[in-house]
Specification:
11 strands, alpha/beta, pyruvate-formate lyase- activating enzyme
């Protein structure tokens, strides 16, 4: 049985103990394809609240103000630092009490977490790394929102001994798919950016979505093969699902989008895992929404159900996740 390099296995090898990623979703952050910098409205499938309930907390304090990287000052910083502490304390208390986990990585999850003044990023990252038993950061971002200033800052943490990951949302390598989903960027320069990131000692995780409109199974596997050829350290793959309040929901209701089936998705995951090198961490193979905002596919409602099926399919091919 081939053992995939999961998050748990990686951290056990790296730190000799269990390490939990603590998801942080800070109000005030946004993306350049939401605020009009490169596009408006965000990705057609995106509703961050569907996977980040923390965004709803204390929202009244922020008055819907959004920051970006061109600002010289951030009037929300003190509120964000407070929000960071509250979320970190809440999650770590739960994982320590329930699972006896004592080391953590702070995962800046929702929106684009490098799309802010560099002084804001430094304040937030410094604070997160100052918390007891934090071994590093994992930062969700976009390929058009990481420059040398961000890389310089993160490289400094690496040199101080912290584990630093940049999680780049790629989703697909196909320009037509990126345009259709309103990503607001293409693939030009991505391979070079990944190389620059890795050269600083920062680990690269690439996100892919299977089931995008008009993409065939061969196209999805080609996206994976291409990203792997860029020498990434980790991948995340999840199915495209439809939630209320998105452009994708409108497409689905109009009959212009058919979600991927669980069986087809599992077939793709099996073939994908055969391609992943032994030293590339597989951080995620599924995703879903466990609330009334999910429209389709219904199998994405229960992550446990989908993972049970996917794990069974993988094991039948001699692969353990």
């Amino acid at each position: 049985m081939r053992l995939l390099l999961t998050v748990g296995r990686y951290f056990k090898q790296r730190f000799g103990c269990k390490v939990r990623k603590i998801p942080i979703s800070l109000n005030g952050f946004t993306c350049p394809n939401i605020d009009g910098t490169v596009a408006k409205g965000g990705c057609i499938y995106c509703k961050n609240e569907s996977f980040s309930p923390s965004l709803a907390l204390n929202k009244k304090d922020f008055n819907n103000f959004k920051i970006n990287s061109k600002m010289s000052e951030n009037p929300l910083l003190e509120l964000q630092l407070k929000d960071l502490k509250e979320q970190f304390t809440h999650h770590t208390r739960f994982y320590k009490d329930e699972f006896n986990i004592g080391k953590y990585m702070v995962y800046f999850q929702s929106f684009t977490n490098t799309y802010a003044p560099i002084s804001t990023l430094k304040a937030l990252y410094d604070t997160a790394l100052s918390y007891k038993n934090v071994v590093g950061l994992s930062i969700g971002t976009r390929v058009d929102c990481v420059d040398d200033k961000v890389l310089d800052l993160l490289e400094g943490y690496v040199k101080q001994g912290s584990e630093i990951w940049l999680e780049y949302g790629i989703q697909s390598i196909y320009e037509d798919s990126l345009k259709l989903t309103n990503r607001g960027h293409g693939m030009e320069g991505v391979e070079e950016l990944f190389a620059k990131t890795s050269a600083r000692g920062i680990k690269v995780c690439a996100h892919l979505i299977y089931g995008l409109p008009n993409e065939s199974p061969d196209m999805m596997l080609t996206s994976l093969k291409t990203i792997l050829s860029y020498k990434v350290h980790s991948i995340k793959i999840h199915p495209l699902y439809v939630v209320k309040g998105t452009m994708l929901a409108n497409m689905y209701k109009a009959g212009n989008y058919t979600p991927i089936t669980l069986e087809s998705y599992a077939d793709l995951i099996v073939e994908s895992m055969k391609l992943v090198p032994e030293d590339v961490m597989v951080q995620r193979l599924s995703a879903g929404v466990h609330d009334e905002s999910l429209i389709a596919p219904k199998w994405c409602f229960d992550k446990n159900v989908q993972m049970k099926y996917i794990r069974s399919r993988l094991r039948s091919e001699g692969i353990d996740y």
